[in-house]
Fold each of these.
Amino acid sequence: MAKKKIMNKKSMTFLEKYLNNAAPTGYEWDGQKIWMDYLKPYVDEFITDSYGTAVGVINPKAKYKVVIEGHADEISWYVNYITDNGLLYVIRNGGSDHQIAPSKWVNIHTKKGIVKGVFGWPAIHTRNKGKEEPPKLDNIFIDVGCTTKKEVEALGVHVGCVITYPDEFHVLNKDKFVCRAIDNRAGGFMIAEVARLLHENKVKLPFGLYITNSVQEEIGLRGAQMITETIKPNLAIVTDVCHDTTTPMINMKTQGETKMGDGPVISYAPAVQNNLRERIIETAEAKKIPFQRMASSRSTGTDTDAFAYSNGGVPSALISLPLRYMHTTVETVHKNDVENVIRLIYETLLTIKDGETFSYFD
């Protein structure tokens, strides 16, 4: 594929709609419907499971199965306790950052619809200046404008209601995408774009391609663990986000150096099959796609681990999108990196032969 603009107007409309939609862990189905509707013209059929993972399949009758995968869920909160005077205390659903919560608007999802609320915080004038109390899980709270527990319950709010941030998609300085939930609906977007390009370029793959948008990654890779047992793939290429470590207060000696705008990040880790990783690197070099390297220790912390250690071992690799301000409402990525992840997955697929094992012993 020639080095040219990847995303078009339709792509951008889809990306914005998909990111703006709330799809918290355990409640991903509305986002999955948006994703499947976009993907439908480019695949032969869909597979879904009882927890909401969605898979678009090209060449479903092929015996050799290749997965490209992202995850669909976003971090959120649960209502955990309602006080007698109508305030809500919360627990995490995924890795929600308590330190960014104060003064944020929230959407509380109820059977009656969205209930608006705010994370309250004591005014600076009233706090002990000699001993500032930082935001913690046991002191952040949500105010929905009620004065009693009964009023709160009348709105449809109860313990167990899921809570998301309403922050929506923006473009910063022409080529930076900013939104909550880029981790990792950007992944779902990028694999969908790969499917679109394959279709538009009339590529005939010699294997079955399973474009997989997994649920529940944020609480332990659960959706990937389930769907890999259903698909039983021969190969998996996973895409997720990683940290741009060049911003303040990050120690590159411990976190490594990866930078937004410098290209996709290719991981080294026990779960990453070395020969598959080298194929991806060779593809990047041959097609002049910029890339970076990242080393993980025991695990990647992504769905790569779930695929790699399933079904007796599945050769798996991880291509990451460098992102600033992970698990905040202003997650930020570079447009060029998004396009280059898409390009790298696409070009790598074109090198894979039917039945290839990537074995060390061939």
Amino acid sequence: MTTALTLIISFVFIMAGAELFTNGVEWVGKRFGLPEGAVGSLLAAVATALPETMVPIIAIIFGGGAHGEEIGTGAILGAPFMLGTLAFCVTGLAVVVFSRSGRRAPRVEINRKVMLRDLSFFLKVYALAILAAFIRSHLLKVVVALGLFTMYGIYAYKTITDEDEEDEEEELHPLFLAKKSANPPTGLILLQVALAMGAIIYGAHMFVGGLEVVAEHLGISAFVLSVIITPVATELPEKFNSITWIRQGKDTLALGNITGAMVFQSSVIPAIGILLTPWELTGAALVNGIMALIMPGIVYCLVRFKGRLHPRVLVSSGLVYAVFVVMVLSGFKV
């Protein structure tokens, strides 16, 4: 099997598994009577982030030494960076395109409270994760990792208990393993979740192996490939849901889909990286981490002090992504 075919097949397994898993956990939430906030903002967010979670874990544990750690670290850093740049850019472009065609208003309708909550958590936890790279004591790094887990727990609690948050819910689709059933059995729901997990893990294992081969063949750092390719392949397709919501005028859902994932990707996933790797960020890795804070920081300030967000600001986020890509592909030292 060629490397290209391996990557394609692995991607199919990952995305199919993610689709099954998302659908399954939504039904888990409904079956066990979890609050809608927990299902939408937490379970669904974690479900869509599962591919990006499994790729670095598989890479670090089974990737085989330095290459595995490079791929794992790149995947961990790449997701928050892509979300705060490319995903913002795609959302802003959607607002511009649909407003010019008369399908929606030209301005971004934001839920100020939700945006400030999500971005505030992101900026704090991700800055802490980056600063952890300068800590020499492994014990202190473990403390930081536990702190990141705790902070995500606090975020989850605030999300669930925030009753005055705007409620824009999607209709629950039928369970894939029981499409004609309005009330599928619990066992079938859990079976679908288990099958989805298996597909994602298998696909992630293939994906990591393919990236290692490509890196060696092209003589490109495994970190560079993973920080650029992995989040775009596993995270960005899910964020294209935001385009549909933008067209429908559901800006809170569109932006919440991104900012909620940013909190998870900047706390839980880096915490895993801190626990499983030396977590020493230098060169392109450190620059990537710092650049990931730029546009979310700008958006946070605009929302907090001006109370509004122009789509051009979101579109300009793509420039930060482009600058980093050009920088690493031109030979910036990793």
Amino acid sequence: MQTKTAIPLEDQDVSDLCVLVVEDDEIMRLSLEDRLRLEQIPARAVGDLAGAHKQLETGEIDLVVTDIRLPDGSGADLFEDIYRHYPGTPVILMTAFGDVSDAVALVKAGAVDYLTKPFDVDAFVGTVRRNLARCADMRLNADYLGVHGETFRPGSGVVGKSPAMRRIERLIARLSKVNSNVLITGESGVGKEVIATLIHFNSDQASGPLIKVNCAALPANLIESELFGHEKGAFTGATYRRIGRFEQAQNGTIFLDEIAETSLEVQVKLLRVLQERVLERVGGEQSIPLDVRVIAATQIDLDEAVKNGTFRSDLYWRLNVIHVEIPPLRRRPEDILYLARLFVKQHASEMDRSVKGLSGEVEAKLLAMSFPGNVRELKNILERAVALCDGTRIMAHDLALLEQLPDGAREAEKMTTLKDSVAAAECQAIQQALQHNDWVIGKAAADLDISRKSLWEKMKRYGIERQREPQSPD
């Protein structure tokens, strides 16, 4: 793993990190926003919780500075929402002298700092810059993704360009110095194992083992022995001592995929391991101390499983210390072409093929798909396409998308939202307009009835770029 040279916090470049100021006093709000911009710190400012939520949804906010008292709620409400839905985003509180106790309580709960009004603006800028610099000092190591020796600033798009995936990158970086349990949820194929691996390799446990366990693939009568090990003679056929997966993960990370598939009996024993950080092998009496980070994943709605009595609520809350929810690919169209190009490059390298990219027609087809199998489906489709491609660029006949999908797989497994459908349709329309106008931006913008600037911004958002054919040798 590559190590990075430490840069003093005061020298960190924070010009590409964004601050959200939440303050109902208009004069103060504009004053703080203007001062931050004068300091070359990107800033946005809103006057209430509703505006703050809209800004957070963009996925572009790296630090929040909020007043304790707001017209439609409080800074405490905002902090709780960030803690639940945007974990890892640092929060600084601004408070009047009489509310200092509330600010102190929130700092104890996880806010990074507070300022008492009236405060010196230079002190405000210093506090913001110092906490932004900590964000800028974070890096994600992506060696295991095949990008050897590379580190990336969180939000740069290691696993995707969409706001949702950039938020997840930022969270992963902020988890690097803590050993909290993590629960990853999302549909099959969204990349839960990839995120678990990224968490491990960007943590203090990175030098230790990463043990992956698919709980659904283990026979019910063997899962306890697989997880916790057994002593010789513990049961019929136990002819030797077995070291279980938890012990194998000592000083590292254990990834429990499909955790909802475990029986209630096994869940009880998992709970004891998480609570006491010790285990006993099956048939053994010795308590073995554990230093293991637990990352669990499931595609099942655990809230419903708890209500139905198939999953223990106490285990759920032990696992759900940090929650990472990965949205399906159909809800993040910005990632489709980004990941498609990445997979083409990877598959071409593995197969030693000369395939360089995707034709515009293929990109439009991919953007129009619902991908019920999510990222795994996209990757498999492109692996097949690279294998079948006779040229340097994948064409529609190489893809054969719909013909090879089984009946019923042409429809998404879940309904998409109106926002998701609009984004996918917009992305496809932009692709078609650009191709029709031979990628002349002005003409494409005119056809779409939008400005050139709007078209550029949308192309950047969706990762749309012209894939040029390689020049033939003379």
